[in-house]
Amino acid sequence: MTVHAAEGRAGGLRLTRRAALASLPIGAATLAAGLLASGPAAALVSLDVTQGNVAPLPIAIPNFIGGSEADAQLAADISGVVAADLKRSGLFQPLDPASFIEKITRADQVPRFQDWTVINAQALVTGGVTRQADGRLKAEFRLWDIYAGQQMAGQQFFTSPDNWRRVAHIIADAIYERLTGDTGYFDTRIVYVDESGPKDRRVKRLAIMDQDGANGRFLTRGNDLVLTPRFNPSSQEIVYMSYGQDQPRVYLLNIETGQRELVGNFPGMTFAPRFSPDGQKIVMSLEDQGNANIYAMDLRSRKTTRLTNSASIDTSPSYSPDGSQVTFTSDRGGGQQIYVMGGDGSNPTRISFGQGSYSTPVWSPRGDLIAFTRQSANGFAIGVMKPDGSGERILTEGFHNEGPTWAPNGRVLMFFRDIPGPTGGPQLWSIDLTGYNEMRVPTANFASDPAWSPLID
Predict the structure, then answer these.
(1) Which residues of 397-416 are buried (b: 16+ CB within 10 A; e: fewer)?
(2) Cβ–Cβ < 8 Å for 59, 123
């Protein structure tokens, strides 16, 4: 049996993803030799996430086993979050527990595979939670291929009980990655603009929550209008625009300490900020005499470099994952369209040529696509195109959809959708890259301008 160490911090225990996933797999040694030999790796279940409308994989996830009666509910809560994460991806269909024939009573129990084939389970997740003498939780899981009769994955984690939801998300990521071959995206957070109050006097506050809507909290008090929050690659800092002191300016905010810092004291408006992939620079728009151009600021030296120089509105810059290029919008051609230029501002090239106006381009973490908002006579649409402008696809459209943001694996987009009417307001939605599995993301109030974090470190 193997373990990993949790990391101490300020009187508590903080689970780091790196430490957790560095733990050695468990379980293979506990299996009978016959089971280990039953079926080649190629026979294991798998999903192709690049295909649209793929049939969800039936997966059984019994409640995890609590080491004591007091931990039984916590164990069930962890397996419940794992099931909810996988179901929300649209790639998995957790089976009704009422259909289960075999009762799992131990975390290390080798299942009776035939019982699970009867209910058409393709995969099975078992696990348990026990309390350690020092108060930490040990959570463990095993992923089984029912038809191959093999364990596919297994890990255990030691952490503070407060981190139980993160453990559940990390387990869901491990299962997603093992079955799809793609990196998961469940152990992530969303920063967004919370909107409350009457429609003509909305209070807008920065808020943050887990990707499934849990653990929400406010980052600002609502004294100033805030827009366009974006994560640093470290996930511990965000950059955003605020209308404090009647002048739109760009600020940095440390999520953990709440410390806020103005990004440069420029004479005109600064807006539409976004971090470079290495987190060392911010690219943003600076307005001067009615024109807006794009600048990059080195956060260490505070030196700014002008990237565009046109008598137009150049805004919404977004770096490619390797930092070598920047996509942005400009009306230099008469209408608002998407352009791509070198990271130093060289060779700006228009890439969008469809009907309507384009905005909010954002480069996929994979580098293969650029997501955007397109406004036309049919309303607002969320779409994607390749960095050379080819292969444009609309994923969803309606009255008002805007502001796409990528999950860190580049397979799912989140955006906000405005519901019309006097009592309407913006809501957060997610959609698969193939255009399927459109789902609302729960928030306490109206919500707009989402930004998806990288996987939490």
Answers:
(1) beebbbbbbbbbbbbbbbbb
(2) yes
What is the rounded average pLDDT of the residues 220-234? 90
The alpha carbon dihedral of 445, 447, 451, 452 has a sign of positive
CA 421 to chain centre: 30
Query: How many helices (H) and strands (E) would you count in the chain?
Result: 5, 32
CB neighbourhood size of 324 (10 A): 12
Within 10 angstroms of residue 133's Cβ, the number of other Cβ atoms is 5
Q: Are strands 357-363 and 370-376 parallel, antiparallel or unpaired?
A: antiparallel
Instruction: For residue 58, list its beta bridge partners.
Output: 93
- Closest by Cα among 31, 133, 151, 130 to 78: 130
> What gap in Å lies between CA 145 and CA 430, rounded to an integer?
29
Burial 354-375 (b: 16+ CB within 10 A, else e): bebbbbbbbbbbeeebbbbbbb
C-alpha to C-alpha distance for 318 and 81, rounded to whole angstroms: 33
Judge contact between 109 and 195, C-beta under 8 A.
no
State how far the Cα of 275 lies from the Cα of 234, in Å rounded to an integer.
10
Q: How far apart are CA 433 and CA 386, in angstroms?
A: 13
Residue 49 has pLDDT above 70, yes or no: no
CB 103: neighbour CB atoms within 10 A? 8
Q: How far is CA 367 from the centre of its chain?
A: 16
> CA 388, CA 369: separation in Å to the nearest integer?
9
Residue with tokens 């698969």: 432
Amino acid at 264: G
Give tens-digit pLDDT for 155-199.
999 989 999 999 999 999 999 999 999 999 999 999 999 999 988
Instruction: State the amino acid at position 73 in one-letter form.
Output: Q
Is residue 431 within 8 A of residue 411, CB to CB? The reply is: no
Written as one letter, the residue type at 345 is G
Q: Which of 243, 174, 250, 245 is nearest to 204 (CA)?
A: 243
- Structure tokens given for 162: 């407060």
> Residue 271 and residue 284: Cα distance in Å, rounded?
6
